[in-house]
Design goal:
The protein is mostly helical. The protein has helices at about 10-20, 25-30, 35-40, 60-70, 105-115, 120-130, 135-140, 155-160, 165-175, 195, 225-244. It is elongated.
Length: about 240
């Protein structure tokens, strides 16, 4: 999408009053709606705006206007400027400016960041608080001249940075940090062979079984022949006594 002219409504007023261009041609050049250009022609829109000549400002040439007037399908094109502006160099942002009334709170904010977000780098803390690397190192090493009376305080609460900036730096530090698997407390131990080689317990088919109740002991199968054999042994002594 090409860039529109300076003061588009004033340019449209001049083109409506001084040319026979169609509403669509003027609207396309000035980046306006055709109905808005029609309102300018009817005196309902842009009342009191003085027309701006795009020829004297170097935005259009007379030949381009005449060409568009002869061909309703032609679209006006901006004239190439003869003045070349130098490219603006990107200025590297310095440390964040901290008001004078808040500068004495920076060591407290540094201490809070060091304790609560140790993953932050010194450069990130410098951007958040607007301090120097020397001050950060002194707070870390407890060699700051006022380290005895320092107390950790949230830099967002102190007004040194916004919550959005703090969250952005914390997320950025988390991405840069390698994903290390934290070891369990006390160290891991190997499982006994009895547990690792034991067969898994059979699963129940009942979906709503009560697992809290103890499993009933499996009844032994009764051998009918052995039962009758024992009964015969008991009857034999009685029969011997009757015979006597």
């Amino acid at each position: 999408m090409s860039q529109g002219p300076l003061m588009p409504k004033a340019t449209a007023v001049w083109l409506v009053e001084n040319t026979s261009l169609s509403f669509d041609q003027i609207a396309d050049f000035c980046k306006l709606h055709p109905l808005e250009v029609k309102g300018i022609a009817d005196g309902e829109v842009a009342t009191g705006i003085k027309g701006l000549d795009p020829i004297t400002t170097g935005q259009l040439t007379r030949e381009e206007i005449e060409k568009a007037q002869g061909n309703p399908n032609h679209r006006l094109k901006m004239a190439e400027t003869r003045v070349k502006l130098p490219e603006q160099k990107r200025i590297k942002k310095g440390p964040r400016y901290t008001p004078v009334s808040r500068r004495h709170d920076r060591p407290n904010a540094i201490l809070w960041l060091v304790r609560n977000h140790p993953e932050l780098k010194d450069a990130q803390i410098m951007r958040l608080v607007g301090t120097t690397k020397t001050t950060i190192q002194q707070v870390r090493d407890r060699t700051h001249w006022n380290s005895a009376s320092l107390s950790p305080m949230d830099p967002v609460t102190l007004g040194l940075c916004s919550q959005i900036d703090l969250d952005f730096e914390v997320q950025r530090a988390a991405k840069d940090r390698p994903h290390a698997v934290a070891a369990q407390e006390g160290g891991g131990t190997l499982m006994p062979a009895e547990i690792s080689t034991a067969e898994p317990e059979p699963t129940r088919d009942e979906p709503f079984a009560d697992m809290s109740r103890p499993k009933p002991a499996k009844e032994e199968e009764i051998d009918v022949n052995s039962v009758f054999a024992k009964l015969k042994q008991l009857k034999r002594p009685d029969e011997d006594e009757d015979e006597e």
